[in-house]
Amino acid sequence: MLADLHIHSCLSPCADDDMTPANICGMAHIKGLQAIAVTDHNTARNLPYVKEAADYYGLILLPGMEITTREEVHLLGYFRDVETAVKIGEIFTEHLPKMKNRPDYFGNQYVMNTDDEIIATEERLLIGSTDLDLAECTKIIRENGGAAVPAHINRGHGLLTNLGLFPEEPDFPVCEVRKELPVSDRLVGNRLRLQSSDAHHLGDILEAVFDLEVDRFSLGGLFERISGGL
Fold first, then answer.
1. Which residue numbers in the chain have pLDDT < 70?
2. For residue 212, is it left (φ>0), alpha (ψ between -120 and 50) or beta?
């Protein structure tokens, strides 16, 4: 399954305003992708519209988000359905500092429909750290049927960069690695390594280069692979 499982929409303040649900799915289709995940910072409010656009283009959407833990580690949370992702996203948003976004400084935080119309603006700044540690964030994800995957472990805000090693608990059978940066094979071990774009601009969405083996070509097959690893 040709996939890019880490993309930010216009709801993340660090992403371009033209990272709309329709544009993201259209670009993924042009690039020959078969599955995507839109993973905004500490929220999933744009996912219902991403799902609508993904269905139009025949893309498999893995619902997700990127959570920032108290240790400032970025953790991807993936779920089987959009409704659960949106609900859990609200939990993580509530654990952010009570700080308003400054669009002139951080960027806009737009919820957009598939006609590229702004239907809501998120007022709370989404890119801060939650007050939950790595274990607590992982527990919330897994107790709600999700899969927790440390993001870009060998880059800024990555698990290895911030903590220096994988903890014994919680265990992570899957991690995301930046291919262009060095990483310790000894520390990563036999974990399944995802390669994604972490795109904040349309042109940065991954080409059809990361081919993930799945037992079933479906959302269920993709989720099981992300959950179980090797």
1. 229-230
2. beta
What is the CB neighbour count within 10 angstroms for residue 170? 15
- Closest alpha carbon to 113 in 33, 38, 16, 10: 10
Q: What is the dotted CATH code of the domain comprising 3-228?
A: 3.20.20.140
For residue 94 the two structure tokens come to: 């509530």
CA distances from 200 to 132, 166, 177, 183 (A): 25, 27, 17, 23
Report pTM. 0.96
Cβ(60)–Cβ(222) below 8 Å: yes
Count CB neighbours of 185 within 10 A: 9
Report pLDDT digits (tens) over 45-60: 999 999 999 999 999 9
Report how far residue 67's alpha carbon sits from residue 75's, in angstroms, rounded to the nearest whole number. Answer: 5
Report the pLDDT value the prediction gives residue 196, as an integer from 0 to 100. 97
How many Å is the Cα radius of gyration of the chain? Answer: 16
Q: Could you tell me which of 219, 63, 71, 60 has the C-alpha nearest to residue 141? A: 63
- Kindly list the domain boundaries of the chain, sorted by start residue: 3-228
User: pLDDT by residue (tens digit) across 84-113?
Assistant: 999 999 999 999 999 999 999 999 999 999
